[in-house]
Amino acid sequence: KDTQDQKGTKDKKDKKKDTQDQKDTKDKKDKKKDTQDQKDTKDKKTNDKEPGKDAESKGKKSKPKFKKYGKDVVTAYGLLKKSPLLLQKFGKRDWSAATEEDIVFTPVVVLEVALENGELSAEQVVTAFWNRAHAVNKHVNAVTEWNENAIEEARALDAQYAANGTVGRLHGIPVSIKDHIAAKGMLLTMGAPVWREYRSPADSPVVERLRAEGAIILCKTNMPELGLSFDTGNHLFGQTHNPYSLERSAGGSSGGEGALIAAGGSPLGIGSDVGGSLRVPASWNGIVSLKPSQGRVPLTGSAPGFEFWEAWHSVVDMLTIGPMARYVEDLILAIDIIAGSDGVDPQASLSPFSPLQGRKPVSDLRVGYFYDDGHTMTTPSTHAAIDTALEALRAAGVVNIVESVPSFFHESTFLLVRSLGRDGGVGIKHLFQLGGQEPSAQAAFLVPYYEEYGMKDVAEADSLIMEINQFRSKMLSWMHSFDVVLCPTTFSPALLPENIVDRAYVPGKFGYTIAYNLARFPSSVLGAVGVATEEDHAGMPVSVQVVSAPNQEALALQVAALIQERVPNVSEMHPVLSPSTESESVVVGAEGVVQEDVAESDAELEVQAEIL
Predict the structure, then answer these.
(1) What is residue 146's three-state secondary structure?
(2) 204, 245, 277, 314: which one is catalytic?
(3) Which helix (H) or strand (E) holds 31?
(4) For all residues of the chain together, what is the average pLDDT?
(5) Residue 277 is among the residues annotated as catalytic for this protein
(6) E-state strands within 165-249
């Protein structure tokens, strides 16, 4: 009996254990099924949001696909989160119903973050600027050639994003390029008949670097013949116009870039500067630009570049390539991408560079300023713009601000002309002959000066080199007391084209930019710190130049950003184009400035740019 009882007890325990095992197995199956159901539901939601699944999705994704970068790499997101101005204006923007007008006056860094988040597609962004650029170019005549594959390249980027995420730090951003900077397969004419049909066999390092970061080349832009003028016009492509007043100059030699960016046709451009060619167009068109230190960006693939060393040594010695945009943050991102040696250009710097390293606490900044150099007088509006910038810096916490006038500044123009014309003009006159026609008024302007100041012997050439070095030494000694200097960019707002080629009017008046090429100083221009009130310039943008010592771009950009943050006009002033059926009667002005005799607008061509 005892044995039977034991056996019965054991059977009950085994049965109870089997029942529990069955229950546990069932629970596991149920839990696995629940997990699979949840996964299926999540996959369905994710698939519903995939770009291309829905024609109305406009490239949105449920999860951003940021490319990973090192902590020292400058990115759009990093710049945006550190900018109170941009966060306040654009941080909460809803892109789901974005119009082309919403896109074209938005900073590059904001657009890039939206692209990386999947809130905008590359096709949306490129198409917006494509349409805008075509509309405004009918009036400013800034574009020399279009990249007809731009929108198709944007679609390819969107497919890349769907598969693997962003390509780089300018993913989907359209960029315009000055004529003489090589882009594979596109014209490189320098506005000169001698190269009217020349197409670049390869990208320059600058364009190569932009493409590697996901940028899309939108177009090439106009420049004066051989880059020899502060006005942009030539026999090949005609005259480029200022979008604030079509009768006025867009500046030169990067005038095509200046006019197109100001009019909202491009968010970012690449130009060059040998005497003011990045800064004068930025000043007169109300945008921002950076002239880097000489050697910061390789000149390889540009003309004249290092390949023309023997014939153009004096140009290469002072030539720089740099970015133009509407916001300082966009300059910072662009220069970080295009800077650095390419291993070919003998003048390109091998030193490590970051546009953010080398900044100072605001209270430690030493700021100098001057209203004019005592030789070339500036306008009252220029004085007022400098005062506005100084007030902004004081409000930001800058305490060390001192006026300092460089009495030797005016020497720079004469030195530059002698340097550029050391061969007596033989080189450029030969290019004119090869082109088979008379030079344009812009290019012909300098020839008599070259003929007059050409070097007659080695001793004269040696003397010039000594004088240039002495000037550079004086500039360094003056700059030693400051981190940055605020000063005029030009002696007045935009001039008429005929003024710029008037030998009785212009000589010596562009020393405010030329001096820094000769001294190899970097500088950033804020092109719309003020608005001109003088009768002959009313409504035109007025700029301020922020200069730092060689290789100290970070300081110039830091101070430029401080001013931009506290002077709304810098980023909010846009031209308003009101085109009529007859281009001759087009009247253009700044937003908020009353213009008389505005003709009836053709609705199909109407281009309105409002203050954001």
Answers:
(1) strand
(2) 277
(3) helix 2-49
(4) 86
(5) yes
(6) 174-178, 216-221, 233-234, 238-239, 241-242, 245-249
